[in-house]
Write a structure and sequence with these properties.
Length: 193
């Protein structure tokens, strides 16, 4: 949903309420666990953020608290903190000359134990979002190397005419989101920025 003014709290609340019962906008729900569906663009990003189990624990909590979505030009409106399955997340985004409201639903959480521990969440797009698809945000600690990494894995395709027309801008926007999300996490953990 695009607006030519900053949305009020009432605007965001009304938009979120309308999304609560909405269906996801793509069929391959959960495919970030397996393989992406045909016809979607796949994005993979991984960066090392430090070392140690303690850093992993703090990073995992930061991801589940959706701190990675708090950017200078975007803010999440959360149903719960930390996130839970079936929560609706609204991302309020400031563009150059407009604002947009984009809703997603948390479809699964990750809390894997073992030699490689993983913690995070995936959400899928709801109606009114500029794209259709799914995105996984995850932190991983490899106990063998003691390395902690942050990863984003997504598949998407434009959902609205404006997104189809502006595919190069859309891709640039997605790349910016990934880079800045990683910087926000590193800053939150005190490991650079």
């Amino acid at each position: 949903m695009f607006l030519f003014r900053e949305p009020t709290e009432a605007d965001v609340s009304k938009f979120r309420q309308a999304q609560l019962g909405a269906k996801l906008t793509y069929a391959a729900v959960g495919a970030t666990r397996t393989s992406p569906p045909l016809g979607f663009r796949v994005n993979r990003f991984r960066t090392q953020i430090g070392h140690g189990r303690e850093l992993y624990e703090r990073a995992g909590q930061a991801v589940l608290d959706a701190r990675i979505l708090h950017l200078a030009w975007a803010r999440p409106v959360l149903q719960n903190c930390p996130l839970r399955v079936d929560d609706t997340v609204v991302l309020v985004v400031r563009h150059k000359f407009a604002w947009s409201l984009n809703a997603c639903r948390v479809i699964y959480l990750i809390d894997e134990q073992g030699p490689a521990r993983r913690r995070g969440f995936a959400y899928g797009t709801l109606p009114g979002h500029g794209v259709r698809g799914e995105e996984l945000f995850q932190v991983e600690w490899d106990s063998g190397t003691d390395q902690v990494s942050y990863m984003i894995y997504s598949f998407s395709r434009p959902a609205q005419l404006i997104a189809w027309v502006g595919i190069p801008l859309l891709r640039s926007f997605q790349a910016r989101f990934v880079r800045e999300s990683a910087k926000v996490l590193q800053t939150a953990l005190g490991s650079g920025g």
